Amino acid sequence: MATLATAVLGGCTARGNDGDAPPSPPAVQVSKLRAEPTVLWDSFTGRVAAPETVALRPRVSGYIERVAFTEGELVQQGDVLFEIDPRPYRAREQAAQAELARAQSQLKLADSEARRARQLLDGKAISREQHEQRDAARAAAEAAVNAAEAALESARLDLQYTTVEAPISGRVGRALVTRGNLAGANETQLTTLVSVDPMYVYFESDQQTLLNSRELVDSHTRPEVRIGLAGEDGLPHRGRLDFIDNRLNSQSGTIQFRAVVDNPDGRFRAGQFARVEMPVEHAHAALLVDRKAVLTDQDRRFVYVVDGQNRALRREVEPGREVDDRVVILSGLAAGDRVIVNGLQRVSEPGIAVRPQSAGSVEQDIGNQVAAANHFSF
Protein backbone atom coordinates (compact mmCIF):
# COMPACT_ATOMS: atom_id res chain seq x y z
CA MET A 1 0.00 0.00 0.00
CA ALA A 2 2.84 2.36 0.91
CA THR A 3 4.49 1.55 -2.38
CA LEU A 4 1.32 2.52 -4.32
CA ALA A 5 1.03 5.83 -2.46
CA THR A 6 4.66 6.59 -3.18
CA ALA A 7 4.12 5.90 -6.87
CA VAL A 8 1.05 8.18 -7.03
CA LEU A 9 2.85 11.00 -5.23
CA GLY A 10 5.79 10.56 -7.52
CA GLY A 11 3.50 10.82 -10.53
CA CYS A 12 1.90 14.02 -9.23
CA THR A 13 5.34 15.48 -8.57
CA ALA A 14 6.43 14.73 -12.10
CA ARG A 15 3.35 16.38 -13.50
CA GLY A 16 3.85 19.38 -11.28
CA ASN A 17 7.36 19.79 -12.63
CA ASP A 18 6.02 19.75 -16.19
CA GLY A 19 3.48 22.45 -15.29
CA ASP A 20 6.29 24.72 -14.10
CA ALA A 21 7.58 24.99 -17.69
CA PRO A 22 6.75 28.35 -19.40
CA PRO A 23 3.48 28.16 -21.39
CA SER A 24 3.75 28.19 -25.15
CA PRO A 25 2.44 31.29 -26.99
CA PRO A 26 -1.30 31.07 -27.76
CA ALA A 27 -2.26 29.98 -31.25
CA VAL A 28 -4.23 32.47 -33.36
CA GLN A 29 -5.57 32.46 -36.89
CA VAL A 30 -4.27 35.24 -39.11
CA SER A 31 -5.25 36.51 -42.52
CA LYS A 32 -2.67 38.14 -44.77
CA LEU A 33 -4.16 41.22 -46.38
CA ARG A 34 -4.01 41.72 -50.10
CA ALA A 35 -5.51 44.40 -52.29
CA GLU A 36 -8.27 42.99 -54.46
CA PRO A 37 -10.93 44.40 -56.81
CA THR A 38 -14.25 44.53 -55.02
CA VAL A 39 -17.74 45.80 -55.69
CA LEU A 40 -18.90 47.82 -52.68
CA TRP A 41 -22.53 47.68 -51.58
CA ASP A 42 -24.64 50.07 -49.56
CA SER A 43 -27.80 49.42 -47.55
CA PHE A 44 -31.11 51.25 -47.93
CA THR A 45 -34.60 51.05 -46.53
CA GLY A 46 -37.23 50.58 -49.21
CA ARG A 47 -40.95 50.12 -49.56
CA VAL A 48 -42.72 47.53 -51.70
CA ALA A 49 -45.25 48.79 -54.25
CA ALA A 50 -47.40 47.16 -56.90
CA PRO A 51 -46.59 48.07 -60.51
CA GLU A 52 -50.33 48.40 -61.20
CA THR A 53 -52.90 49.70 -58.73
CA VAL A 54 -56.56 50.22 -59.65
CA ALA A 55 -59.19 52.01 -57.58
CA LEU A 56 -62.18 50.32 -59.20
CA ARG A 57 -65.20 52.54 -59.94
CA PRO A 58 -68.31 51.79 -62.02
CA ARG A 59 -68.84 53.41 -65.40
CA VAL A 60 -72.62 53.50 -64.94
CA SER A 61 -74.83 54.31 -61.97
CA GLY A 62 -77.10 51.75 -60.39
CA TYR A 63 -77.78 49.51 -57.45
CA ILE A 64 -75.29 46.75 -56.68
CA GLU A 65 -77.00 43.44 -57.37
CA ARG A 66 -74.12 41.04 -56.64
CA VAL A 67 -70.58 41.05 -55.25
CA ALA A 68 -68.96 38.23 -57.22
CA PHE A 69 -65.57 37.79 -55.52
CA THR A 70 -64.02 36.71 -52.25
CA GLU A 71 -62.23 39.57 -50.56
CA GLY A 72 -58.44 39.29 -50.68
CA GLU A 73 -58.33 36.58 -53.34
CA LEU A 74 -56.30 36.52 -56.54
CA VAL A 75 -58.32 37.33 -59.64
CA GLN A 76 -57.56 37.26 -63.33
CA GLN A 77 -58.14 40.01 -65.84
CA GLY A 78 -61.74 39.80 -67.07
CA ASP A 79 -63.15 38.11 -63.95
CA VAL A 80 -66.55 39.49 -62.86
CA LEU A 81 -66.28 41.40 -59.58
CA PHE A 82 -69.60 43.30 -59.31
CA GLU A 83 -72.96 43.23 -61.06
CA ILE A 84 -75.16 46.34 -61.22
CA ASP A 85 -78.91 46.00 -61.82
CA PRO A 86 -79.03 45.78 -65.65
CA ARG A 87 -82.80 46.20 -66.19
CA PRO A 88 -82.88 50.00 -66.77
CA TYR A 89 -80.01 49.71 -69.24
CA ARG A 90 -81.56 46.76 -71.03
CA ALA A 91 -84.74 48.85 -71.53
CA ARG A 92 -82.67 51.71 -72.93
CA GLU A 93 -81.01 49.32 -75.34
CA GLN A 94 -84.41 48.11 -76.56
CA ALA A 95 -85.60 51.71 -76.97
CA ALA A 96 -82.46 52.51 -78.97
CA GLN A 97 -83.06 49.50 -81.20
CA ALA A 98 -86.63 50.68 -81.86
CA GLU A 99 -85.42 54.20 -82.65
CA LEU A 100 -82.88 52.77 -85.09
CA ALA A 101 -85.59 50.75 -86.85
CA ARG A 102 -87.76 53.88 -87.17
CA ALA A 103 -84.87 55.91 -88.56
CA GLN A 104 -84.04 53.19 -91.07
CA SER A 105 -87.67 53.15 -92.24
CA GLN A 106 -87.65 56.94 -92.68
CA LEU A 107 -84.41 56.67 -94.64
CA LYS A 108 -85.93 54.08 -96.94
CA LEU A 109 -88.91 56.36 -97.66
CA ALA A 110 -86.74 59.45 -98.18
CA ASP A 111 -84.44 57.56 -100.52
CA SER A 112 -87.40 56.39 -102.62
CA GLU A 113 -88.84 59.92 -102.85
CA ALA A 114 -85.46 61.35 -103.81
CA ARG A 115 -85.08 58.86 -106.66
CA ARG A 116 -88.58 59.64 -107.97
CA ALA A 117 -87.86 63.34 -107.76
CA ARG A 118 -84.84 62.84 -109.93
CA GLN A 119 -86.92 61.12 -112.59
CA LEU A 120 -89.57 63.83 -112.45
CA LEU A 121 -86.94 66.52 -112.73
CA ASP A 122 -85.56 64.90 -115.86
CA GLY A 123 -89.09 64.97 -117.32
CA LYS A 124 -89.54 68.58 -116.18
CA ALA A 125 -92.53 67.48 -114.08
CA ILE A 126 -91.22 69.19 -110.90
CA SER A 127 -89.03 72.13 -110.20
CA ARG A 128 -85.40 71.89 -109.21
CA GLU A 129 -86.29 73.31 -105.80
CA GLN A 130 -88.62 70.38 -105.05
CA HIS A 131 -85.91 67.94 -106.15
CA GLU A 132 -83.38 69.56 -103.81
CA GLN A 133 -85.85 69.43 -100.91
CA ARG A 134 -86.26 65.67 -101.34
CA ASP A 135 -82.49 65.18 -101.57
CA ALA A 136 -82.12 67.12 -98.30
CA ALA A 137 -84.78 64.96 -96.70
CA ARG A 138 -82.84 61.83 -97.66
CA ALA A 139 -79.62 63.26 -96.21
CA ALA A 140 -81.44 64.11 -92.96
CA ALA A 141 -82.81 60.56 -92.79
CA GLU A 142 -79.29 59.15 -93.26
CA ALA A 143 -78.05 61.35 -90.40
CA ALA A 144 -80.91 60.15 -88.21
CA VAL A 145 -79.93 56.54 -88.88
CA ASN A 146 -76.29 57.28 -87.92
CA ALA A 147 -77.45 58.97 -84.71
CA ALA A 148 -79.72 56.03 -83.87
CA GLU A 149 -76.87 53.56 -84.44
CA ALA A 150 -74.59 55.59 -82.14
CA ALA A 151 -77.30 55.73 -79.47
CA LEU A 152 -77.75 51.96 -79.70
CA GLU A 153 -73.99 51.41 -79.37
CA SER A 154 -73.93 53.67 -76.30
CA ALA A 155 -76.86 51.81 -74.76
CA ARG A 156 -75.14 48.49 -75.38
CA LEU A 157 -71.95 49.76 -73.74
CA ASP A 158 -73.90 50.96 -70.69
CA LEU A 159 -75.55 47.55 -70.44
CA GLN A 160 -72.13 45.90 -70.72
CA TYR A 161 -70.74 48.17 -67.99
CA THR A 162 -73.32 46.87 -65.51
CA THR A 163 -70.95 43.89 -65.23
CA VAL A 164 -67.81 45.23 -63.54
CA GLU A 165 -64.78 43.14 -64.52
CA ALA A 166 -61.19 43.08 -63.24
CA PRO A 167 -59.11 45.31 -65.54
CA ILE A 168 -55.85 43.61 -64.46
CA SER A 169 -54.77 40.36 -62.86
CA GLY A 170 -53.86 40.68 -59.19
CA ARG A 171 -55.15 40.63 -55.65
CA VAL A 172 -58.50 42.25 -54.90
CA GLY A 173 -59.18 44.16 -51.68
CA ARG A 174 -62.34 44.31 -49.62
CA ALA A 175 -65.69 45.27 -51.10
CA LEU A 176 -66.29 48.93 -50.21
CA VAL A 177 -69.89 48.78 -51.50
CA THR A 178 -72.13 45.80 -50.81
CA ARG A 179 -75.31 44.46 -52.36
CA GLY A 180 -78.28 46.84 -52.40
CA ASN A 181 -76.27 50.06 -52.27
CA LEU A 182 -76.33 52.71 -54.96
CA ALA A 183 -73.08 53.21 -56.87
CA GLY A 184 -72.52 56.45 -58.79
CA ALA A 185 -70.84 56.38 -62.18
CA ASN A 186 -67.13 57.36 -61.96
CA GLU A 187 -67.58 58.38 -58.32
CA THR A 188 -68.19 55.46 -55.96
CA GLN A 189 -65.10 53.35 -55.29
CA LEU A 190 -66.05 49.69 -55.29
CA THR A 191 -62.73 48.06 -54.31
CA THR A 192 -59.01 48.18 -54.99
CA LEU A 193 -56.97 45.84 -57.14
CA VAL A 194 -53.18 45.50 -57.17
CA SER A 195 -50.89 43.42 -59.35
CA VAL A 196 -48.71 40.89 -57.49
CA ASP A 197 -46.02 39.56 -59.82
CA PRO A 198 -43.57 41.16 -60.30
CA MET A 199 -43.34 43.83 -57.58
CA TYR A 200 -41.49 47.12 -57.25
CA VAL A 201 -39.22 48.15 -54.37
CA TYR A 202 -38.63 51.91 -54.11
CA PHE A 203 -35.72 53.32 -52.10
CA GLU A 204 -33.81 56.59 -51.94
CA SER A 205 -30.12 57.42 -51.97
CA ASP A 206 -28.13 60.56 -51.31
CA GLN A 207 -26.34 62.55 -53.98
CA GLN A 208 -22.86 61.29 -53.11
CA THR A 209 -23.91 57.66 -53.45
CA LEU A 210 -25.44 58.48 -56.82
CA LEU A 211 -22.16 59.98 -58.02
CA ASN A 212 -20.13 57.02 -56.76
CA SER A 213 -22.45 54.48 -58.34
CA ARG A 214 -22.78 56.18 -61.74
CA GLU A 215 -20.38 53.70 -63.37
CA LEU A 216 -22.60 50.80 -62.25
CA VAL A 217 -26.17 52.09 -62.37
CA ASP A 218 -25.87 54.08 -65.60
CA SER A 219 -24.78 51.05 -67.62
CA HIS A 220 -27.15 49.50 -70.12
CA THR A 221 -27.34 46.38 -67.94
CA ARG A 222 -28.72 47.59 -64.65
CA PRO A 223 -27.08 45.91 -61.61
CA GLU A 224 -28.63 43.25 -59.41
CA VAL A 225 -29.79 44.24 -55.93
CA ARG A 226 -30.33 42.16 -52.79
CA ILE A 227 -33.62 42.42 -50.94
CA GLY A 228 -34.83 41.17 -47.57
CA LEU A 229 -38.15 41.52 -45.76
CA ALA A 230 -38.85 41.92 -42.05
CA GLY A 231 -38.38 38.64 -40.22
CA GLU A 232 -36.08 37.16 -42.88
CA ASP A 233 -32.44 36.33 -42.26
CA GLY A 234 -30.11 38.14 -44.58
CA LEU A 235 -31.15 39.29 -48.03
CA PRO A 236 -32.42 36.15 -49.78
CA HIS A 237 -34.23 37.81 -52.72
CA ARG A 238 -32.68 39.14 -55.90
CA GLY A 239 -34.04 42.00 -57.95
CA ARG A 240 -32.79 44.25 -60.68
CA LEU A 241 -32.55 48.02 -60.76
CA ASP A 242 -34.85 49.27 -63.52
CA PHE A 243 -35.51 52.95 -62.82
CA ILE A 244 -33.68 56.03 -61.51
CA ASP A 245 -35.61 59.25 -61.10
CA ASN A 246 -34.65 62.13 -63.38
CA ARG A 247 -34.10 64.65 -60.59
CA LEU A 248 -33.20 64.90 -56.92
CA ASN A 249 -35.65 65.85 -54.22
CA SER A 250 -34.72 69.45 -53.39
CA GLN A 251 -35.94 69.13 -49.80
CA SER A 252 -34.23 65.87 -48.80
CA GLY A 253 -31.34 65.92 -51.27
CA THR A 254 -32.08 62.33 -52.28
CA ILE A 255 -32.94 60.60 -55.52
CA GLN A 256 -35.33 57.70 -55.93
CA PHE A 257 -34.35 54.29 -57.22
CA ARG A 258 -36.61 51.38 -58.11
CA ALA A 259 -35.91 47.68 -58.29
CA VAL A 260 -38.18 45.03 -59.79
CA VAL A 261 -38.35 41.62 -58.10
CA ASP A 262 -40.19 38.45 -59.07
CA ASN A 263 -42.95 37.45 -56.67
CA PRO A 264 -44.32 34.06 -57.74
CA ASP A 265 -45.20 32.95 -54.19
CA GLY A 266 -46.79 36.25 -53.16
CA ARG A 267 -44.30 36.88 -50.34
CA PHE A 268 -44.04 40.56 -51.24
CA ARG A 269 -47.08 42.71 -50.45
CA ALA A 270 -47.65 46.33 -51.39
CA GLY A 271 -46.73 48.63 -48.50
CA GLN A 272 -44.16 46.35 -46.86
CA PHE A 273 -40.81 47.72 -45.75
CA ALA A 274 -37.75 46.04 -47.22
CA ARG A 275 -34.00 46.10 -46.74
CA VAL A 276 -32.12 46.72 -49.97
CA GLU A 277 -28.45 46.45 -50.81
CA MET A 278 -27.23 48.00 -54.06
CA PRO A 279 -23.72 48.05 -55.54
CA VAL A 280 -22.51 51.63 -55.31
CA GLU A 281 -18.83 51.57 -56.17
CA HIS A 282 -16.19 49.43 -57.85
CA ALA A 283 -12.98 49.50 -55.79
CA HIS A 284 -10.00 48.32 -57.83
CA ALA A 285 -7.72 47.70 -54.82
CA ALA A 286 -9.62 47.26 -51.55
CA LEU A 287 -8.29 45.85 -48.28
CA LEU A 288 -10.87 43.61 -46.63
CA VAL A 289 -10.73 41.91 -43.25
CA ASP A 290 -13.13 39.61 -41.47
CA ARG A 291 -15.79 41.53 -39.56
CA LYS A 292 -14.89 39.65 -36.37
CA ALA A 293 -11.35 41.03 -36.48
CA VAL A 294 -12.46 44.65 -36.01
CA LEU A 295 -12.79 45.50 -32.31
CA THR A 296 -14.19 48.62 -30.63
CA ASP A 297 -12.70 50.71 -27.85
CA GLN A 298 -15.17 53.50 -27.07
CA ASP A 299 -15.29 55.43 -30.36
CA ARG A 300 -12.16 53.86 -31.83
CA ARG A 301 -11.89 50.79 -34.04
CA PHE A 302 -8.79 48.62 -34.01
CA VAL A 303 -7.42 45.23 -35.03
CA TYR A 304 -4.53 43.10 -33.87
CA VAL A 305 -1.74 42.44 -36.36
CA VAL A 306 1.18 40.05 -36.01
CA ASP A 307 4.60 41.58 -36.64
CA GLY A 308 7.83 39.92 -37.78
CA GLN A 309 8.61 38.72 -34.22
CA ASN A 310 5.16 37.12 -33.97
CA ARG A 311 3.89 39.70 -31.50
CA ALA A 312 0.27 40.84 -31.45
CA LEU A 313 0.21 44.61 -31.91
CA ARG A 314 -2.82 46.86 -31.73
CA ARG A 315 -3.49 48.89 -34.88
CA GLU A 316 -6.20 51.55 -35.07
CA VAL A 317 -8.14 51.46 -38.35
CA GLU A 318 -10.87 53.33 -40.19
CA PRO A 319 -13.47 50.85 -41.42
CA GLY A 320 -15.57 51.52 -44.49
CA ARG A 321 -18.40 49.63 -46.17
CA GLU A 322 -19.16 46.01 -45.45
CA VAL A 323 -18.95 43.35 -48.16
CA ASP A 324 -20.77 40.20 -47.01
CA ASP A 325 -18.94 39.20 -43.79
CA ARG A 326 -15.90 41.41 -44.42
CA VAL A 327 -15.14 45.10 -43.86
CA VAL A 328 -13.25 47.45 -46.15
CA ILE A 329 -10.35 49.12 -44.30
CA LEU A 330 -9.86 52.69 -45.46
CA SER A 331 -6.75 53.46 -43.39
CA GLY A 332 -4.51 51.90 -40.75
CA LEU A 333 -3.48 48.75 -42.62
CA ALA A 334 -1.46 47.89 -45.71
CA ALA A 335 -1.27 44.97 -48.07
CA GLY A 336 0.81 42.16 -46.54
CA ASP A 337 -0.22 42.84 -42.93
CA ARG A 338 -1.18 39.74 -40.97
CA VAL A 339 -4.43 40.41 -39.10
CA ILE A 340 -5.68 38.17 -36.31
CA VAL A 341 -9.16 36.97 -37.27
CA ASN A 342 -9.64 34.12 -34.78
CA GLY A 343 -8.38 33.53 -31.26
CA LEU A 344 -8.59 37.17 -30.22
CA GLN A 345 -9.78 36.13 -26.76
CA ARG A 346 -6.31 34.66 -26.13
CA VAL A 347 -4.57 37.99 -26.81
CA SER A 348 -4.49 39.32 -23.26
CA GLU A 349 -2.52 42.49 -23.99
CA PRO A 350 -0.76 44.25 -26.87
CA GLY A 351 2.75 42.96 -27.51
CA ILE A 352 2.09 39.40 -26.36
CA ALA A 353 3.81 36.66 -28.34
CA VAL A 354 1.50 34.48 -30.42
CA ARG A 355 1.75 31.54 -32.81
CA PRO A 356 0.06 32.49 -36.09
CA GLN A 357 -1.49 29.45 -37.70
CA SER A 358 -4.13 28.43 -40.18
CA ALA A 359 -7.73 27.78 -39.10
CA GLY A 360 -7.26 23.99 -39.00
CA SER A 361 -4.09 24.26 -36.93
CA VAL A 362 -5.77 26.61 -34.46
CA GLU A 363 -8.71 24.25 -33.95
CA GLN A 364 -6.31 21.30 -33.41
CA ASP A 365 -4.24 23.33 -30.96
CA ILE A 366 -7.34 24.34 -28.98
CA GLY A 367 -8.34 20.69 -28.79
CA ASN A 368 -4.88 19.76 -27.49
CA GLN A 369 -5.04 22.48 -24.85
CA VAL A 370 -8.46 21.32 -23.64
CA ALA A 371 -7.23 17.71 -23.47
CA ALA A 372 -4.14 18.76 -21.52
CA ALA A 373 -6.21 20.76 -19.05
CA ASN A 374 -8.45 17.74 -18.44
CA HIS A 375 -5.34 15.54 -17.95
CA PHE A 376 -3.75 17.76 -15.30
CA SER A 377 -6.90 18.27 -13.22
CA PHE A 378 -7.41 15.63 -10.49
Structure description:
Residues 291-346 form the Multidrug resistance protein MdtA-like C-terminal permuted SH3 domain. One of its GO terms (cellular component) is cell envelope. It is found in: Cell inner membrane. With 378 residues, this protein is an alpha+beta fold. It folds into 4 domains: 25-37 and 287-376, conserved putative lor/sdh protein from methanococcus maripaludis s2 fold; 41-52 and 194-283, Beta Barrel (Elongation Factor Tu (Ef-tu), domain 3), CATH 2.40.30; 53-80 and 165-191, OB fold (Dihydrolipoamide Acetyltransferase, E2P), CATH 2.40.50; 86-161, Helix Hairpins (Orthogonal Bundle). It is 31% helix and 35% strand. The chain contains 6 helices and 22 strands. The protein has helices spanning 2-19, 87-122, 128-161, 207-212, 214-217, 359-376; strands spanning 27-32, 36-49, 53-56, 62-67, 74-75, 80-84, 163-165, 170-172, 182-183, 191-194, 199-206, 224-229, 237-244, 254-261, 273-286, 288-290, 295-297, 300-306, 312-323, 326-331, 338-342, 355-357. Strands 1, 16, 17, 18, 19, 20, 21 and 22 form an 8-stranded mixed beta sheet that branches. It has a 6-stranded antiparallel beta barrel with strand order 2-11-14-13-12-15. β17 and β18 (300-306) form a beta hairpin. The chain starts with a helix and ends with a helix. Mean pLDDT is 83; it is low at 1-16 and 360-378.
